[in-house]
Amino acid sequence: MAERTISIIRAGFMALTDCAPIVVARELEFDRRFGIHIEPVRLPSWAAIRDHLAFEKLECAHMLGGLSLAMHLGLGGMRTEMTVPLMLGRGGNAITLSSSVYDEALALMAGRPVFNRAESAAMLKPVVAARKLKGERPLRLAMVHAFSSHNYELRAWLAHGGIDPDHDVELSVVPPPRMVEALRNGLIDGYCVGEPWSQVAVEEGLGRIMATKADLYPNSPEKVLALRRPWAIGHADMVSALVEAFSAAMSWAAQTENRTELAYMLSRPAYLNVDHDVILHGLMCAPRLVPGDMRQPIDDYLSFGGTGCGYPAPGTALWLLAQMRRWGQAGAGHEAEVAGVFDPSYIERNVNFSGERKFQFGRRAKQPPFDGVAFDDKDIEAYWRQFAIAKGA
Amino acid sequence: MKELSLNILVIDEDPARAALLEGALVEAGYTHVVTLQTTSNLHQRIVAIEPDVVIIDLQNPDRDTLENMFQVTRSVKKPIAMFVDQSDGDTIRRAVEAGVSAYVVDGLKKDRVRPVVEVAVTRFESFSKLVQERDDARNALADRKRTDRAKGLLMQHRGISEEEAYSLMRKAAMQQSRKIADIADSIITAFELDSQLIGGRKHG
Fold first, then answer.
1. pLDDT (tens digit per residue) in A66-82
2. Which of A100-109's residues contact partners 24+ apart within 8 Å by CB, and which partners?
3. Which of B59, B84, B86 is facing A48, going by the closest CB pair?
4. Is residue B108 domain-shared with residue B69, that is, in the same domain?
5. Minimum Cα–Cα distance from A170: chain B residue
6. A182 touching B, CB under 8 A?
7. Which among B68, B72, B84 is the nearest to A77, CB-wise?
8. What is the pLDDT of residues A235-280, one digit of tens each?
Protein backbone atom coordinates (compact mmCIF):
# COMPACT_ATOMS: atom_id res chain seq x y z
CA MET A 1 0.00 0.00 0.00
CA ALA A 2 1.37 3.40 -0.93
CA GLU A 3 2.02 5.60 2.04
CA ARG A 4 -0.01 8.78 2.12
CA THR A 5 2.10 11.88 2.51
CA ILE A 6 0.99 13.92 5.45
CA SER A 7 1.86 17.59 5.63
CA ILE A 8 3.36 18.71 8.89
CA ILE A 9 2.02 22.04 10.09
CA ARG A 10 3.83 23.69 12.99
CA ALA A 11 1.41 25.56 15.23
CA GLY A 12 2.80 28.02 17.78
CA PHE A 13 0.92 28.53 21.03
CA MET A 14 1.15 30.13 24.45
CA ALA A 15 0.40 28.24 27.67
CA LEU A 16 -3.21 29.38 27.98
CA THR A 17 -6.51 27.50 28.24
CA ASP A 18 -7.63 28.87 24.90
CA CYS A 19 -4.84 27.05 23.06
CA ALA A 20 -7.25 24.08 23.42
CA PRO A 21 -8.20 23.92 19.71
CA ILE A 22 -4.54 23.18 18.83
CA VAL A 23 -4.07 20.65 21.62
CA VAL A 24 -7.35 18.86 20.96
CA ALA A 25 -6.84 18.75 17.18
CA ARG A 26 -3.51 17.04 17.78
CA GLU A 27 -4.34 14.79 20.75
CA LEU A 28 -7.64 13.51 19.37
CA GLU A 29 -6.18 13.31 15.85
CA PHE A 30 -8.71 15.60 14.22
CA ASP A 31 -5.69 16.71 12.19
CA ARG A 32 -5.21 13.26 10.60
CA ARG A 33 -8.86 13.15 9.64
CA PHE A 34 -8.21 16.10 7.34
CA GLY A 35 -4.88 14.85 6.05
CA ILE A 36 -2.54 17.05 8.04
CA HIS A 37 -0.26 16.62 11.02
CA ILE A 38 -0.30 19.47 13.52
CA GLU A 39 2.83 19.90 15.57
CA PRO A 40 2.16 22.14 18.58
CA VAL A 41 5.13 24.39 19.46
CA ARG A 42 4.94 26.14 22.83
CA LEU A 43 6.69 29.50 22.93
CA PRO A 44 7.38 31.77 25.91
CA SER A 45 6.35 35.16 24.51
CA TRP A 46 4.05 36.67 21.92
CA ALA A 47 7.11 38.32 20.39
CA ALA A 48 8.65 34.87 19.84
CA ILE A 49 5.40 33.60 18.26
CA ARG A 50 5.27 36.67 16.00
CA ASP A 51 8.92 36.30 14.88
CA HIS A 52 8.70 32.54 14.37
CA LEU A 53 5.60 33.00 12.23
CA ALA A 54 7.04 35.94 10.28
CA PHE A 55 10.25 34.05 9.50
CA GLU A 56 8.62 30.77 8.55
CA LYS A 57 9.60 28.75 11.59
CA LEU A 58 5.86 28.19 12.09
CA GLU A 59 3.07 27.74 9.58
CA CYS A 60 0.33 28.96 11.88
CA ALA A 61 -0.16 30.25 15.40
CA HIS A 62 -2.60 30.77 18.26
CA MET A 63 -2.35 34.54 18.39
CA LEU A 64 -3.83 37.66 19.92
CA GLY A 65 -6.21 39.14 17.34
CA GLY A 66 -4.65 42.58 17.74
CA LEU A 67 -1.14 41.22 17.25
CA SER A 68 -2.08 39.67 13.91
CA LEU A 69 -3.30 43.10 12.78
CA ALA A 70 -0.18 44.82 14.16
CA MET A 71 1.98 42.40 12.13
CA HIS A 72 -0.04 43.20 9.04
CA LEU A 73 0.43 46.93 9.58
CA GLY A 74 4.10 46.52 10.52
CA LEU A 75 3.64 47.91 14.04
CA GLY A 76 6.38 46.84 16.44
CA GLY A 77 7.90 44.23 14.16
CA MET A 78 8.57 43.25 10.58
CA ARG A 79 5.62 44.03 8.32
CA THR A 80 4.09 40.67 7.40
CA GLU A 81 0.92 40.24 5.39
CA MET A 82 -1.51 38.17 7.43
CA THR A 83 -4.67 36.12 7.05
CA VAL A 84 -6.99 35.05 9.87
CA PRO A 85 -9.32 32.29 8.65
CA LEU A 86 -10.73 31.31 12.08
CA MET A 87 -11.31 32.64 15.59
CA LEU A 88 -10.13 30.18 18.27
CA GLY A 89 -12.73 30.87 20.96
CA ARG A 90 -14.14 33.61 23.12
CA GLY A 91 -13.60 35.08 26.55
CA GLY A 92 -11.20 33.69 29.12
CA ASN A 93 -9.80 36.96 30.44
CA ALA A 94 -10.25 38.50 33.85
CA ILE A 95 -8.95 41.45 35.84
CA THR A 96 -7.43 40.46 39.18
CA LEU A 97 -6.43 42.76 42.02
CA SER A 98 -4.10 41.84 44.86
CA SER A 99 -5.85 41.24 48.17
CA SER A 100 -3.92 44.06 49.85
CA VAL A 101 -4.85 46.69 47.25
CA TYR A 102 -8.46 45.51 47.40
CA ASP A 103 -8.41 46.05 51.18
CA GLU A 104 -6.87 49.48 50.67
CA ALA A 105 -9.70 50.33 48.26
CA LEU A 106 -12.37 48.95 50.54
CA ALA A 107 -11.13 51.01 53.49
CA LEU A 108 -11.25 54.17 51.35
CA MET A 109 -14.81 53.24 50.28
CA ALA A 110 -15.82 53.04 53.98
CA GLY A 111 -16.25 49.28 53.64
CA ARG A 112 -18.80 49.49 50.83
CA PRO A 113 -17.64 47.58 47.76
CA VAL A 114 -18.92 48.05 44.21
CA PHE A 115 -20.66 44.79 43.40
CA ASN A 116 -21.27 45.42 39.71
CA ARG A 117 -18.11 43.97 38.16
CA ALA A 118 -18.21 46.17 35.05
CA GLU A 119 -18.25 49.24 37.33
CA SER A 120 -15.78 48.00 39.89
CA ALA A 121 -12.83 50.13 38.72
CA ALA A 122 -14.61 52.94 40.58
CA MET A 123 -13.20 51.33 43.72
CA LEU A 124 -9.68 52.13 42.53
CA LYS A 125 -10.32 55.81 41.98
CA PRO A 126 -9.97 56.74 45.67
CA VAL A 127 -6.78 54.62 45.83
CA VAL A 128 -5.31 56.50 42.88
CA ALA A 129 -6.24 59.85 44.45
CA ALA A 130 -5.01 58.96 47.95
CA ARG A 131 -1.67 57.71 46.64
CA LYS A 132 -1.18 60.89 44.62
CA LEU A 133 -1.93 63.04 47.68
CA LYS A 134 0.42 61.08 49.91
CA GLY A 135 3.12 61.03 47.25
CA GLU A 136 3.11 57.24 47.18
CA ARG A 137 3.88 55.21 44.08
CA PRO A 138 0.98 54.75 41.65
CA LEU A 139 -0.77 51.41 41.24
CA ARG A 140 1.12 49.00 39.03
CA LEU A 141 -1.07 46.93 36.74
CA ALA A 142 0.00 44.46 34.10
CA MET A 143 -1.40 42.97 30.92
CA VAL A 144 0.10 40.53 28.44
CA HIS A 145 0.97 42.55 25.36
CA ALA A 146 0.54 46.04 23.94
CA PHE A 147 -1.74 44.67 21.19
CA SER A 148 -3.65 42.27 23.45
CA SER A 149 -7.39 42.36 24.11
CA HIS A 150 -6.27 42.30 27.76
CA ASN A 151 -4.69 45.71 27.32
CA TYR A 152 -7.88 47.08 25.77
CA GLU A 153 -10.13 45.49 28.40
CA LEU A 154 -8.04 46.71 31.33
CA ARG A 155 -7.82 50.21 29.86
CA ALA A 156 -11.57 50.37 29.10
CA TRP A 157 -12.44 49.13 32.59
CA LEU A 158 -10.14 51.70 34.24
CA ALA A 159 -11.32 54.54 31.98
CA HIS A 160 -14.94 53.67 32.73
CA GLY A 161 -14.07 54.06 36.41
CA GLY A 162 -12.63 57.51 35.70
CA ILE A 163 -8.99 56.41 35.75
CA ASP A 164 -6.67 57.39 32.91
CA PRO A 165 -4.58 54.29 32.21
CA ASP A 166 -1.71 56.35 30.78
CA HIS A 167 -1.46 58.89 33.60
CA ASP A 168 -3.06 57.57 36.79
CA VAL A 169 -1.49 54.10 36.95
CA GLU A 170 1.64 52.33 35.68
CA LEU A 171 0.84 49.76 33.03
CA SER A 172 3.39 47.13 32.14
CA VAL A 173 3.59 43.87 30.23
CA VAL A 174 4.20 40.50 31.89
CA PRO A 175 3.91 37.17 30.01
CA PRO A 176 0.87 35.15 31.18
CA PRO A 177 2.73 32.25 32.85
CA ARG A 178 4.69 34.78 34.95
CA MET A 179 1.74 36.88 36.06
CA VAL A 180 1.00 35.01 39.28
CA GLU A 181 4.62 35.12 40.36
CA ALA A 182 4.79 38.89 39.72
CA LEU A 183 1.67 39.38 41.88
CA ARG A 184 3.06 37.12 44.60
CA ASN A 185 6.33 39.08 44.69
CA GLY A 186 4.53 42.41 44.88
CA LEU A 187 6.01 43.63 41.57
CA ILE A 188 2.47 44.39 40.40
CA ASP A 189 -0.83 45.14 42.17
CA GLY A 190 -3.10 43.52 39.64
CA TYR A 191 -3.44 42.33 36.07
CA CYS A 192 -5.60 41.30 33.19
CA VAL A 193 -4.75 37.83 31.89
CA GLY A 194 -6.31 34.79 30.21
CA GLU A 195 -7.20 31.53 31.92
CA PRO A 196 -5.93 29.59 33.79
CA TRP A 197 -3.75 32.36 35.24
CA SER A 198 -6.63 34.26 36.91
CA GLN A 199 -7.81 31.14 38.71
CA VAL A 200 -4.29 30.17 39.76
CA ALA A 201 -3.91 33.45 41.68
CA VAL A 202 -7.32 33.17 43.35
CA GLU A 203 -6.68 29.56 44.35
CA GLU A 204 -3.40 30.65 45.90
CA GLY A 205 -5.28 33.34 47.82
CA LEU A 206 -3.19 36.12 46.26
CA GLY A 207 -5.97 38.19 44.76
CA ARG A 208 -9.56 38.50 43.70
CA ILE A 209 -11.21 38.84 40.32
CA MET A 210 -12.77 42.27 39.91
CA ALA A 211 -14.19 41.91 36.39
CA THR A 212 -14.17 39.41 33.54
CA LYS A 213 -14.16 39.85 29.80
CA ALA A 214 -17.76 38.60 29.83
CA ASP A 215 -18.69 41.60 32.02
CA LEU A 216 -17.01 44.05 29.65
CA TYR A 217 -17.01 43.03 25.99
CA PRO A 218 -18.46 39.49 25.94
CA ASN A 219 -18.45 39.00 22.16
CA SER A 220 -15.25 40.81 21.35
CA PRO A 221 -12.41 38.97 19.61
CA GLU A 222 -9.84 36.95 21.53
CA LYS A 223 -7.30 34.53 20.05
CA VAL A 224 -7.21 33.90 16.35
CA LEU A 225 -5.63 31.39 14.00
CA ALA A 226 -2.91 33.50 12.39
CA LEU A 227 -1.27 32.66 9.05
CA ARG A 228 1.16 34.39 6.72
CA ARG A 229 -0.96 35.47 3.77
CA PRO A 230 1.46 34.25 1.06
CA TRP A 231 1.53 30.84 2.73
CA ALA A 232 -2.26 30.77 3.00
CA ILE A 233 -2.64 31.65 -0.68
CA GLY A 234 -0.12 28.99 -1.71
CA HIS A 235 -1.64 26.31 0.52
CA ALA A 236 -5.40 26.80 0.26
CA ASP A 237 -6.03 23.07 0.83
CA MET A 238 -4.01 23.05 4.01
CA VAL A 239 -5.75 26.18 5.29
CA SER A 240 -9.10 24.48 4.71
CA ALA A 241 -7.87 21.37 6.49
CA LEU A 242 -6.64 23.47 9.41
CA VAL A 243 -9.95 25.30 9.65
CA GLU A 244 -11.81 21.97 9.54
CA ALA A 245 -9.57 20.34 12.14
CA PHE A 246 -9.67 23.27 14.56
CA SER A 247 -13.44 23.73 14.07
CA ALA A 248 -13.94 20.05 14.92
CA ALA A 249 -11.66 20.46 17.95
CA MET A 250 -13.61 23.50 19.10
CA SER A 251 -16.95 21.68 18.75
CA TRP A 252 -15.51 18.87 20.84
CA ALA A 253 -14.14 21.29 23.45
CA ALA A 254 -17.50 23.04 23.65
CA GLN A 255 -19.29 19.84 24.77
CA THR A 256 -19.98 19.86 28.50
CA GLU A 257 -19.20 16.16 28.83
CA ASN A 258 -15.70 16.64 27.41
CA ARG A 259 -14.54 19.36 29.79
CA THR A 260 -12.90 17.13 32.36
CA GLU A 261 -10.96 15.25 29.71
CA LEU A 262 -9.95 18.56 28.15
CA ALA A 263 -8.77 19.88 31.52
CA TYR A 264 -6.57 16.80 32.01
CA MET A 265 -5.22 17.11 28.48
CA LEU A 266 -4.29 20.78 28.94
CA SER A 267 -2.79 20.21 32.37
CA ARG A 268 0.11 18.15 30.96
CA PRO A 269 3.62 19.55 31.34
CA ALA A 270 3.99 19.98 27.56
CA TYR A 271 0.97 22.27 27.47
CA LEU A 272 -0.07 24.36 30.51
CA ASN A 273 1.55 22.43 33.37
CA VAL A 274 -1.20 23.60 35.74
CA ASP A 275 -3.49 21.52 37.97
CA HIS A 276 -6.43 20.20 35.91
CA ASP A 277 -8.95 21.24 38.55
CA VAL A 278 -7.93 24.89 38.29
CA ILE A 279 -8.20 24.73 34.49
CA LEU A 280 -11.64 23.16 34.86
CA HIS A 281 -13.05 26.20 36.75
CA GLY A 282 -12.56 28.31 33.64
CA LEU A 283 -13.75 25.63 31.21
CA MET A 284 -16.95 25.26 33.24
CA CYS A 285 -17.57 29.03 33.13
CA ALA A 286 -17.65 28.93 36.92
CA PRO A 287 -14.55 30.71 38.23
CA ARG A 288 -13.85 31.42 41.86
CA LEU A 289 -13.76 35.20 42.10
CA VAL A 290 -12.70 35.55 45.72
CA PRO A 291 -10.39 33.19 47.65
CA GLY A 292 -12.46 30.87 49.82
CA ASP A 293 -15.81 31.87 48.28
CA MET A 294 -18.09 29.62 46.28
CA ARG A 295 -17.40 29.50 42.58
CA GLN A 296 -19.68 31.68 40.52
CA PRO A 297 -21.31 30.80 37.20
CA ILE A 298 -20.61 33.48 34.57
CA ASP A 299 -22.17 33.04 31.12
CA ASP A 300 -19.62 33.12 28.32
CA TYR A 301 -16.70 33.33 30.74
CA LEU A 302 -14.78 31.14 28.28
CA SER A 303 -16.25 29.39 25.27
CA PHE A 304 -15.29 27.40 22.20
CA GLY A 305 -18.79 27.11 20.76
CA GLY A 306 -22.00 29.03 20.19
CA THR A 307 -23.21 31.23 17.38
CA GLY A 308 -20.42 32.37 15.13
CA CYS A 309 -17.71 31.48 17.63
CA GLY A 310 -15.13 30.65 14.96
CA TYR A 311 -16.33 33.14 12.37
CA PRO A 312 -13.70 35.80 11.56
CA ALA A 313 -16.03 38.67 10.72
CA PRO A 314 -14.19 41.64 9.20
CA GLY A 315 -16.16 43.90 11.57
CA THR A 316 -14.41 42.13 14.45
CA ALA A 317 -11.03 43.21 13.09
CA LEU A 318 -12.35 46.76 12.87
CA TRP A 319 -13.34 46.65 16.54
CA LEU A 320 -9.72 45.81 17.35
CA LEU A 321 -8.49 48.60 15.09
CA ALA A 322 -10.85 50.99 16.91
CA GLN A 323 -9.21 50.03 20.23
CA MET A 324 -5.77 50.58 18.68
CA ARG A 325 -6.91 54.00 17.50
CA ARG A 326 -8.42 54.88 20.90
CA TRP A 327 -5.14 54.17 22.65
CA GLY A 328 -2.87 55.79 20.10
CA GLN A 329 -1.30 52.63 18.67
CA ALA A 330 -2.26 53.03 15.02
CA GLY A 331 -2.74 55.87 12.57
CA ALA A 332 -6.04 56.63 10.86
CA GLY A 333 -7.21 55.21 7.56
CA HIS A 334 -6.31 51.51 7.88
CA GLU A 335 -9.91 50.24 7.87
CA ALA A 336 -9.94 48.49 4.50
CA GLU A 337 -6.49 46.98 4.98
CA VAL A 338 -7.35 45.61 8.42
CA ALA A 339 -10.83 44.33 7.57
CA GLY A 340 -9.28 42.19 4.84
CA VAL A 341 -7.07 40.30 7.30
CA PHE A 342 -10.07 38.51 8.82
CA ASP A 343 -11.12 36.28 5.96
CA PRO A 344 -14.27 34.18 6.48
CA SER A 345 -14.12 32.59 3.02
CA TYR A 346 -12.37 29.47 4.34
CA ILE A 347 -14.89 28.75 7.10
CA GLU A 348 -17.74 29.42 4.68
CA ARG A 349 -16.46 26.54 2.56
CA ASN A 350 -16.32 24.36 5.68
CA VAL A 351 -18.49 21.23 5.38
CA ASN A 352 -20.46 22.03 8.51
CA PHE A 353 -20.87 25.70 7.83
CA SER A 354 -24.34 27.16 7.64
CA GLY A 355 -25.48 30.74 7.27
CA GLU A 356 -26.75 30.98 10.83
CA ARG A 357 -23.23 30.51 12.10
CA LYS A 358 -22.24 33.76 10.51
CA PHE A 359 -21.53 36.36 13.05
CA GLN A 360 -21.83 40.03 12.24
CA PHE A 361 -19.94 41.73 14.98
CA GLY A 362 -20.85 45.28 15.84
CA ARG A 363 -24.11 45.55 13.99
CA ARG A 364 -26.60 43.35 15.76
CA ALA A 365 -25.57 43.88 19.36
CA LYS A 366 -28.63 43.20 21.49
CA GLN A 367 -27.58 45.48 24.31
CA PRO A 368 -25.11 48.36 24.55
CA PRO A 369 -21.67 47.50 25.92
CA PHE A 370 -20.83 48.20 29.55
CA ASP A 371 -19.31 51.58 28.73
CA GLY A 372 -22.45 52.72 26.91
CA VAL A 373 -20.72 53.48 23.60
CA ALA A 374 -22.19 51.35 20.80
CA PHE A 375 -19.67 50.11 18.28
CA ASP A 376 -20.24 50.95 14.63
CA ASP A 377 -17.94 49.19 12.20
CA LYS A 378 -18.91 51.71 9.52
CA ASP A 379 -17.31 54.59 11.43
CA ILE A 380 -14.71 53.57 13.98
CA GLU A 381 -13.39 57.13 14.33
CA ALA A 382 -16.78 58.37 15.52
CA TYR A 383 -16.93 55.41 17.89
CA TRP A 384 -13.70 55.90 19.77
CA ARG A 385 -13.87 59.68 19.84
CA GLN A 386 -16.95 59.42 22.09
CA PHE A 387 -14.79 58.27 24.97
CA ALA A 388 -13.75 60.93 27.48
CA ILE A 389 -10.55 59.06 28.21
CA ALA A 390 -8.53 58.18 25.11
CA LYS A 391 -5.03 58.66 23.82
CA GLY A 392 -5.44 58.64 20.05
CA ALA A 393 -5.14 61.64 17.79
CA MET B 1 36.32 54.18 15.38
CA LYS B 2 33.07 55.94 16.21
CA GLU B 3 31.04 52.75 15.70
CA LEU B 4 32.81 51.04 18.53
CA SER B 5 31.53 53.52 21.09
CA LEU B 6 28.09 51.95 20.88
CA ASN B 7 26.45 51.04 24.19
CA ILE B 8 25.54 47.40 23.85
CA LEU B 9 23.32 45.54 26.29
CA VAL B 10 23.29 41.74 26.16
CA ILE B 11 20.42 40.00 27.98
CA ASP B 12 20.79 36.25 28.15
CA GLU B 13 19.64 33.75 30.75
CA ASP B 14 22.43 31.40 29.72
CA PRO B 15 25.59 32.67 31.44
CA ALA B 16 27.94 30.64 29.24
CA ARG B 17 26.51 32.02 26.03
CA ALA B 18 26.39 35.55 27.46
CA ALA B 19 30.07 35.35 28.35
CA LEU B 20 30.94 34.02 24.91
CA LEU B 21 29.09 36.88 23.23
CA GLU B 22 30.44 39.58 25.51
CA GLY B 23 34.00 38.32 24.92
CA ALA B 24 33.51 38.35 21.15
CA LEU B 25 32.09 41.87 21.16
CA VAL B 26 34.95 43.18 23.26
CA GLU B 27 37.40 41.38 20.99
CA ALA B 28 35.77 43.11 18.01
CA GLY B 29 36.54 46.41 19.68
CA TYR B 30 33.22 47.27 21.33
CA THR B 31 34.23 48.49 24.75
CA HIS B 32 30.83 49.42 26.19
CA VAL B 33 29.19 46.05 26.64
CA VAL B 34 26.98 45.23 29.61
CA THR B 35 25.60 41.74 30.18
CA LEU B 36 22.50 40.98 32.24
CA GLN B 37 21.53 37.47 33.13
CA THR B 38 18.40 38.17 35.09
CA THR B 39 15.74 40.55 34.00
CA SER B 40 14.71 41.75 37.42
CA ASN B 41 14.89 45.52 37.65
CA LEU B 42 15.17 45.56 33.88
CA HIS B 43 13.58 48.96 33.66
CA GLN B 44 15.99 50.74 35.99
CA ARG B 45 18.95 49.00 34.41
CA ILE B 46 17.99 50.09 30.93
CA VAL B 47 17.42 53.67 32.03
CA ALA B 48 20.91 53.65 33.59
CA ILE B 49 22.71 51.94 30.69
CA GLU B 50 20.93 53.84 27.89
CA PRO B 51 21.77 51.16 25.34
CA ASP B 52 22.07 51.85 21.62
CA VAL B 53 21.66 48.18 20.83
CA VAL B 54 20.03 45.43 22.89
CA ILE B 55 20.81 41.82 21.99
CA ILE B 56 18.44 39.32 23.62
CA ASP B 57 17.82 35.61 23.25
CA LEU B 58 14.81 35.20 20.94
CA GLN B 59 13.23 32.76 23.39
CA ASN B 60 13.59 35.01 26.43
CA PRO B 61 10.15 35.22 28.08
CA ASP B 62 10.69 38.90 28.94
CA ARG B 63 10.74 40.10 25.36
CA ASP B 64 7.10 41.22 25.47
CA THR B 65 7.89 43.26 28.58
CA LEU B 66 10.94 44.76 26.92
CA GLU B 67 9.15 45.63 23.68
CA ASN B 68 6.37 47.32 25.56
CA MET B 69 8.89 49.33 27.54
CA PHE B 70 10.63 50.46 24.36
CA GLN B 71 7.75 51.08 22.04
CA VAL B 72 4.68 51.96 23.93
CA THR B 73 5.47 53.50 27.26
CA ARG B 74 8.50 55.35 25.90
CA SER B 75 9.86 55.17 29.41
CA VAL B 76 13.37 55.05 28.02
CA LYS B 77 14.71 58.35 26.79
CA LYS B 78 15.44 57.26 23.24
CA PRO B 79 12.87 55.01 21.57
CA ILE B 80 14.18 51.58 20.69
CA ALA B 81 12.69 49.31 18.05
CA MET B 82 13.29 45.84 16.81
CA PHE B 83 15.95 45.68 14.12
CA VAL B 84 13.54 45.21 11.25
CA ASP B 85 15.02 47.12 8.37
CA GLN B 86 13.07 45.48 5.53
CA SER B 87 16.06 45.77 3.20
CA ASP B 88 18.09 43.66 5.59
CA GLY B 89 15.82 40.63 5.42
CA ASP B 90 18.70 38.14 5.21
CA THR B 91 20.43 39.42 8.35
CA ILE B 92 17.18 39.23 10.30
CA ARG B 93 16.34 35.80 8.94
CA ARG B 94 19.74 34.50 9.98
CA ALA B 95 19.29 36.11 13.38
CA VAL B 96 15.93 34.41 13.89
CA GLU B 97 17.41 31.09 12.77
CA ALA B 98 20.19 31.51 15.29
CA GLY B 99 17.78 32.57 18.05
CA VAL B 100 18.93 36.18 18.32
CA SER B 101 16.74 39.24 18.51
CA ALA B 102 18.15 42.73 18.31
CA TYR B 103 16.64 46.05 19.31
CA VAL B 104 18.14 49.26 18.10
CA VAL B 105 17.83 52.86 19.19
CA ASP B 106 15.85 55.09 16.87
CA GLY B 107 17.92 56.73 14.13
CA LEU B 108 20.96 54.48 14.43
CA LYS B 109 22.29 53.65 10.98
CA LYS B 110 21.89 50.13 9.70
CA ASP B 111 25.60 49.94 8.84
CA ARG B 112 26.54 50.54 12.45
CA VAL B 113 24.16 47.91 13.74
CA ARG B 114 24.79 45.10 11.28
CA PRO B 115 28.30 44.18 12.51
CA VAL B 116 27.00 43.88 16.08
CA VAL B 117 24.15 41.64 14.96
CA GLU B 118 26.61 39.60 12.88
CA VAL B 119 28.86 38.98 15.88
CA ALA B 120 25.84 37.92 17.94
CA VAL B 121 24.53 35.61 15.23
CA THR B 122 27.91 33.94 14.76
CA ARG B 123 28.35 33.37 18.49
CA PHE B 124 24.81 32.06 18.94
CA GLU B 125 25.36 29.70 16.02
CA SER B 126 28.62 28.33 17.37
CA PHE B 127 27.11 28.03 20.84
CA SER B 128 24.13 26.01 19.62
CA LYS B 129 26.54 23.82 17.65
CA LEU B 130 28.37 23.09 20.90
CA VAL B 131 25.09 22.30 22.65
CA GLN B 132 24.05 20.10 19.74
CA GLU B 133 27.31 18.14 19.96
CA ARG B 134 26.87 17.69 23.70
CA ASP B 135 23.25 16.53 23.23
CA ASP B 136 24.29 14.16 20.44
CA ALA B 137 26.85 12.61 22.77
CA ARG B 138 24.18 12.19 25.45
CA ASN B 139 21.72 10.76 22.95
CA ALA B 140 24.31 8.29 21.75
CA LEU B 141 24.65 7.07 25.31
CA ALA B 142 20.88 6.86 25.73
CA ASP B 143 20.60 4.97 22.41
CA ARG B 144 23.14 2.49 23.65
CA LYS B 145 21.18 1.88 26.87
CA ARG B 146 17.92 1.31 24.98
CA THR B 147 19.62 -1.06 22.56
CA ASP B 148 21.04 -3.05 25.47
CA ARG B 149 17.65 -3.25 27.14
CA ALA B 150 15.96 -4.52 23.95
CA LYS B 151 18.74 -7.05 23.50
CA GLY B 152 18.18 -8.24 27.06
CA LEU B 153 14.44 -8.62 26.52
CA LEU B 154 14.95 -10.65 23.33
CA MET B 155 17.54 -12.85 25.00
CA GLN B 156 15.31 -13.48 27.99
CA HIS B 157 12.05 -14.11 26.13
CA ARG B 158 13.34 -15.78 22.96
CA GLY B 159 16.17 -17.69 24.56
CA ILE B 160 18.77 -16.44 22.09
CA SER B 161 22.29 -15.18 22.51
CA GLU B 162 23.30 -11.54 22.65
CA GLU B 163 24.86 -11.74 19.21
CA GLU B 164 21.72 -13.29 17.73
CA ALA B 165 19.54 -10.64 19.36
CA TYR B 166 21.69 -7.86 17.99
CA SER B 167 21.79 -9.30 14.50
CA LEU B 168 17.97 -9.62 14.50
CA MET B 169 17.70 -5.96 15.40
CA ARG B 170 20.26 -4.91 12.81
CA LYS B 171 18.42 -6.83 10.11
CA ALA B 172 15.11 -5.22 11.05
CA ALA B 173 16.72 -1.79 11.08
CA MET B 174 18.17 -2.39 7.63
CA GLN B 175 14.90 -3.69 6.14
CA GLN B 176 12.84 -0.81 7.55
CA SER B 177 15.63 1.74 7.06
CA ARG B 178 15.35 2.89 10.65
CA LYS B 179 17.91 3.41 13.39
CA ILE B 180 18.75 0.44 15.61
CA ALA B 181 17.73 2.54 18.62
CA ASP B 182 14.27 3.01 17.06
CA ILE B 183 13.94 -0.73 16.54
CA ALA B 184 14.97 -1.14 20.18
CA ASP B 185 12.20 1.27 21.17
CA SER B 186 9.62 -0.76 19.25
CA ILE B 187 10.81 -3.97 20.92
CA ILE B 188 10.67 -2.42 24.39
CA THR B 189 7.19 -1.01 23.75
CA ALA B 190 5.95 -4.32 22.37
CA PHE B 191 7.17 -6.21 25.44
CA GLU B 192 5.72 -3.56 27.77
CA LEU B 193 2.32 -3.75 26.05
CA ASP B 194 2.51 -7.53 26.20
CA SER B 195 3.19 -7.59 29.91
CA GLN B 196 0.47 -4.99 30.51
CA LEU B 197 -2.05 -7.11 28.62
CA ILE B 198 -1.06 -10.23 30.49
CA GLY B 199 -1.07 -8.31 33.76
CA GLY B 200 -4.51 -6.89 32.90
CA ARG B 201 -5.89 -10.35 32.24
CA LYS B 202 -4.59 -11.58 35.56
CA HIS B 203 -6.33 -8.76 37.44
CA GLY B 204 -9.50 -8.76 35.30
1. 999 999 999 877 889 99
2. A100/A189, A101/A127, A101/A139, A101/A189, A101/A190, A102/A207, A102/A208, A102/A210
3. B59
4. yes
5. B73
6. no
7. B84
8. 999 999 999 999 999 999 999 999 999 999 999 999 999 999 999 9
